[in-house]
Amino acid sequence: MNARAARTGASVLHSPRPVPPRTTRAGTTTPTLAVVPGPAPRTGKASFVMLIVLVLSGGLGALLGINTALAQGSFTASKLQKQATELDDRSQTLEEKLARAAAPDRLAKAARKIGMVPAPGVAFVSLADGTVSDGALPAPYIPPPLTAAQKAELAAKAQLEAEQTAQEKVAKEARKARKQEQAAVDQQRLAAEQAAAAEQAARDQAQRNWEQKLAEQEKSGSRGGGEQVVDPPPGN
Amino acid sequence: MTGRRPQPARRPAARRPSPGRRPAPQNKRGNKLGNPGRRLHAALMILSLVSVLMVGRLFQVQGFEASSYASVAQNERLRTVTVPANRGVILDRDGDVLARSVEARTVTADPTLIADPVAYAHLLASKLNLDETELAAKLGERPRRYVILAHNIDPEQWRDIAATVDPGTGKPISGIFAEVSSQRVYPADTLAANVLGFLNASGAAGGGIEREFDELLSGKDGQQTYERSSSGGKIATAGIRGSEPVSGQDLQLTIDRDIQYSAQQAIAAKVRETKAESGTVIVQDIRTGEILAMATAPTFDPNNPGKGSDENRGNRAVSQIYEPGSITKALTMSALIEQGVVTPRSEFTVPGELRRSGQVLNDSDPHGTERWTLAGILAKSSNIGTVLATDRISSQLLFDYLKKFGIAEPSGLGFPGESRGLLPKLDSWTGTTRYTLPFGQGFALNTVQAASIYQTIGNGGVRIAPTLVKSWTDKDGVVHTPAAPAVTPVVSAATATTVGKMLEQVTGPGGTAPHVQIAGYRVAGKTGTAQFADSECKCYRGYTASFAGFAPADDPRIVVSVTLQKPVNGHYGGMLGGPVFVEVMTFALRTLGIRPTGAKPARLPLDW
Residues spanned by CATH 3.40.710.10 within chain B? Predict the structure, then answer.
């Protein structure tokens, strides 16, 4: 602008462009020198943008990192939670088993199984003078529980005995049956003999009756025309 | 200067328009819209209008309706589930668990997701303890989407089920689900079942302590609200809100589980042996009134209450009332001696039968005219002798003593289904009432009340109301104890001691129960054989055989009361109740570490 002013200063009147009246000061022949202010530093703008980008990407990165960490933590937590639940369940199951096993009736059964018996008497130890009251009694002898082999042996023995008994029984039955059969045969024979004897007696009786009647008819003389009034006994 | 004039006039035309030149007539009409200034203006107007609208909407959404929109959005994500409170544990006097709740699973299925019900049934039947064909039928109920397969599957079992691999697809099974539930477990099965009660299928208390202290035991259910993702999972970072469930309180009973076991075993065996309808045993601490055992036979398994009958699920020891018979004579004797009208050595001439109010009274064993002392009358359990002795006090006094000993009074246990018994009011007494009451006919009581009579005599004449609950512990660990039981002096200590000595004659030579002996200990007790008043036929049918007593007689600690209802094989109280008494008493003395005194039993003359 100053340079332009200097140029136009020589021919003000011939200048095709109007010169604003404010610039008449420039009409002096000696041009003034002044420090030209440099243009605004361009490098500053670029670094600011870089800073913003850095902050933004840093923030994004951090956010991503935190989120990942959170998710990771959440995964770990849920895994541990699951493990804790499993262990909790396990402990519950075991406690349950223990409580059941410790119930008085199961305890009593288990004790009997290993050959323990209720104490028939108890003795008390006096802590003051160290004396023991009488009252403790030896437990009655209860045979120890049988081993599997003994049980098998006993079972075999029992079975053998049972078989023998069964055989004896069968034999006895057979004998009894034979006896009954014999008795039946005897009875039948006896009955037949009796029947025969009775028949014979009846026949004899009839014979005797006929003879008697015959004798009576003869005696009364009513026998006419050789007519046979009395039938003879049925065939011999 | 003049030559310059037209120039500025021309110049503005080339330069930006000025407001002064707007109504230029040379401009065409179409040029009006084309005017950039107007265009800009219009755009600005529209933009500002739109932004005003948007801001308005923003205020509407974010300002005025923000809460309702937020709640709608939240409800889309939020799920609320009930967190069941843990039911309190029931403990015995030593802290052993009698009942507690554990987490369980209810296994359900969605049949529409199951392709091959038969194959699934084959896989799962053994794991669910179900019948294979039944399970296949359930899994095949096609149109339904929800079938319950099994209750009370423990979590480990469920884990095993959930991990089952479908051999068809090689993947874990699908369509089988589980819901978290709570299961009440009674680890010792039938032990103290009638005292504890049970929970029914819907989880409600069905009787006993469970019902009496239901409010205390059940606690308060909590709620959990969480945000869930579209896949249904919890959003971990969103936070979980809700109220924590308040666990139920733990209840400690006065029951000793070992003594309870012994009592239960003994009475169950005797009920089987005698083919009795039922039997009960009470074991009570004389000095505190605490009930150490309350056994009933037949009983039930509270783990499976559905299998028990109603009668067996109740507690006969408090709900069943009966005419006690001769065990009442201890009460009568206490009244007579307290009144000072007799002493154990008072002499009576006891005839074989006695006519009173037009009725003939008999003794259970026929006898001629005997010369018995009061001690003899009690030892031989003579009804006639008891009536003769009671002639010396008034009906009013007799009634008062019965009341004082707790007959037909609430026991103080507050147990569900408790029956306090029957005692006719004084003004409704018939002619014979006065004569039958002294030997235990014409009124009714329960086994706890029967035990209480002997607790009173054993405790120097001071009745302490029976208690079943020792304490309960709230969620902060603070231990609460119930109000102290009522303490009532009934007779003097001297009277109680005298009656105790008389009761020792019952178990001595010449008494009705000479076989009731415990080596090293002095035993006081009384047999009772009464006719059973059957409510069905309103007649006497069958017998009530009982035995009640305490030991050691010289320093009473424990009361045991045994009752058998309607035994078929035998009916004498001494013969049936006696052995149960001895077994339970021996066990209780030993369990509580009570030393034998080794003293010789007191002997009183029985006749003169």
Answer: 257-302+312-591
